[in-house]
C-alpha cells in the first residue's frame, strides 16, 4: 500500500504538478514587464497613426493623441525600466515634451511622428529583453524539473526519499509562486503611482474613472503658477518639496473622498464624487482658501505673491466616452485661468 501510494504521488507530480509549477513560474494572467512595454508601444503607435492621418491637428485628434502619449508615458515610467534600460529616461522626456508641443501646435505632424520612432524602438528593445529573460528562466527551470523527474522514475531504491524530496520542492515552489505574485502586484501598484509624491499618475486616473462608471464625478486640474521660476530661484530639491507639500494640501483640503494624481511636472488632478456644479465651486474655493492659509512662499513670483494656483474643474458622469471630453474641458478652463492672469479657478459647464 505504501509503495502504491508513493507511485501515485510520483505519477501525480510528473503529470500534473510540473505543468502547474511552470504556470506559476510564468505568472500566467499577470501583467508582466514585457506586456507593459507592449501596451506602451501600442499607445505610441496609435498616436503615430493619428499624426499621419488626414486631419491630425483637429481638436478631437489632438486630445486622442495626447491621451495615447500620456498612457504610453505612464506604462513606460517604471522604476525597473529606468534602472535597466538607458533609453527609458530619454524616451520619457521625448514623449512628455512632444505632448506639450502638440498641444501648443509648435510641431508638424510628420516631425512629431518621426520623434516617436526612438521611444518605440526603445520599447521594442525592452520587450525583446524581457521576453529573453523570461524564456531563459522558464527553460532553466523546466530542464531542472525534467532531470529531477528522471531521477525519481529510475531510482526505485530511494523512491520514498525522492518522493518526499519532490514534495518539499513542490511546497517551496508554491511559496515562491505566491511571493512572486505578491511582488508582481506590488510592482503593478508602484507602476500606477508617482514616485515623488506617492499619489497616482495619469494611468491610474484613467483606470479610476473606468472603475466608477455611472457615478457623477468632479475632475479638478491644478497647476502651480510660475513653477519654473520657483525652481530657478529655489533649486529643484525645493521644487520637489513644494510638489509634495501641494499633494499633502490637496489631500487635507479635499478630504478622504478625493483621489489625487500627479499628471507630470507641476500639474495635479483630483477626482471625487460631486452631484452639482455648486458643490464643485465650493471645492475650488476650499482649495484657494487652503493655499492662502498655508502661506507657501514664492520668492520669484512676478506679482510678488506667495505660491498661487490655476485651477480648472468640470463635473461629468463617469463613462469611457465622456472622460476625454471632461478632461479636455477642465484643461481648457485651467488655461483660460492662466490667460486671465493666473491665481484663480474656473468651473466648466460643458462636462
Number of domains: 2
Q: First CA to last CA: what distance?
A: 73 Å
- Sheet with most strands: 5 strands, mixed
Output the strand order for the largest sheet.
2-3-1-4-5
What is the residue-mean pLDDT, rounded to a whole number?
A: 83
Number of strands: 5
Describe the protein.
- The protein has 351 residues and is of the alpha+beta class.
- It has 2 domains: 1-191; 202-348, Reverse transcriptase/Diguanylate cyclase domain (Alpha-Beta Plaits, 2-Layer Sandwich), CATH 3.30.70.
- Helices cover 67% and strands 10% of the residues.
- The chain is built from 13 helices and 5 strands.
- Strands 2-3-1-4-5 form a 5-stranded mixed β-sheet, sandwiched between helices.
- β2 (259-264) and β3 form a beta hairpin.
- α2 (33-51) packs antiparallel against α3 (59-76) and α10 crosses α11 (236-254).
- The longest helix has 38 residues, at 117-154.
- 34% of the residues are buried.
- It comes from Vreelandella zhaodongensis (Halomonas zhaodongensis).
- Keywords: Membrane, Transmembrane, Transmembrane helix.
- InterPro entries: Diguanylate_Cyclase, GGDEF_dom, Nucleotide_cyclase, Rev_trsase/Diguanyl_cyclase.
Amino acid at each position: 500500500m505504501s509503495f502504491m501510494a508513493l507511485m501515485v504521488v510520483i505519477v501525480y507530480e510528473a503529470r500534473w504538478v510540473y505543468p502547474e509549477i511552470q504556470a506559476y513560474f510564468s505568472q500566467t494572467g499577470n501583467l508582466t514587464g514585457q506586456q507593459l512595454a507592449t501596451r506602451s508601444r501600442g499607445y505610441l503607435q496609435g498616436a503615430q497613426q493619428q499624426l499621419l492621418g488626414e486631419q491630425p491637428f483637429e481638436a478631437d485628434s489632438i486630445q486622442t493623441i495626447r491621451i495615447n502619449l500620456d498612457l504610453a508615458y505612464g506604462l513606460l515610467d517604471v522604476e525597473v525600466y529606468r534602472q535597466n534600460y538607458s533609453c527609458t529616461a530619454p524616451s520619457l522626456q521625448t514623449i512628455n515634451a512632444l505632448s506639450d508641443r502638440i498641444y501648443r501646435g509648435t510641431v508638424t505632424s510628420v516631425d512629431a511622428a518621426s520623434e516617436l520612432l526612438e521611444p518605440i524602438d526603445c520599447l521594442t528593445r525592452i520587450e525583446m529583453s524581457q521576453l529573453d529573460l523570461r524564456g531563459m528562466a522558464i527553460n532553466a527551470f523546466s530542464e531542472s524539473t525534467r532531470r529531477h523527474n528522471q531521477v525519481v522514475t529510475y531510482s526505485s531504491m530511494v523512491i520514498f526519499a525522492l518522493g518526499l524530496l519532490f514534495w518539499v520542492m513542490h511546497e517551496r515552489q508554491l511559496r515562491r509562486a505566491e511571493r512572486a505574485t505578491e511582488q508582481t502586484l506590488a510592482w503593478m501598484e508602484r507602476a500606477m503611482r508617482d514616485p515623488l509624491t506617492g499619489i497616482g499618475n495619469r494611468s491610474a486616473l484613467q483606470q479610476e474613472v473606468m472603475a466608477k462608471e455611472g457615478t457623477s464625478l468632479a475632475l479638478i486640474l491644478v497647476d502651480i503658477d510660475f513653477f519654473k521660476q520657483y525652481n530657478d530661484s529655489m533649486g529643484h530639491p525645493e521644487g520637489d518639496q513644494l510638489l509634495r507639500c501641494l499633494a499633502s494640501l490637496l489631500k487635507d483640503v479635499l478630504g478622504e473622498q478625493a483621489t489625487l494624481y500627479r499628471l507630470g511636472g507641476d500639474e495635479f488632478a483630483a477626482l471625487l464624487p460631486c452631484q452639482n456644479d455648486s458643490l464643485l465651486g465650493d471645492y475650488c474655493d476650499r482649495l484657494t482658501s487652503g493655499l492662502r492659509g498655508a502661506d507657501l512662499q514664492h520668492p520669484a513670483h512676478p506679482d510678488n505673491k506667495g505660491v498661487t494656483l490655476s485651477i480648472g474643474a468640470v463635473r461629468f458622469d463617469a463613462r469611457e466616452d465622456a472622460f476625454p471630453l471632461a478632461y479636455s474641458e477642465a484643461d481648457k478652463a485651467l488655461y483660460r485661468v492662466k490667460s486671465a492672469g493666473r491665481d484663480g479657478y474656473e468651473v466648466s459647464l460643458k462636462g
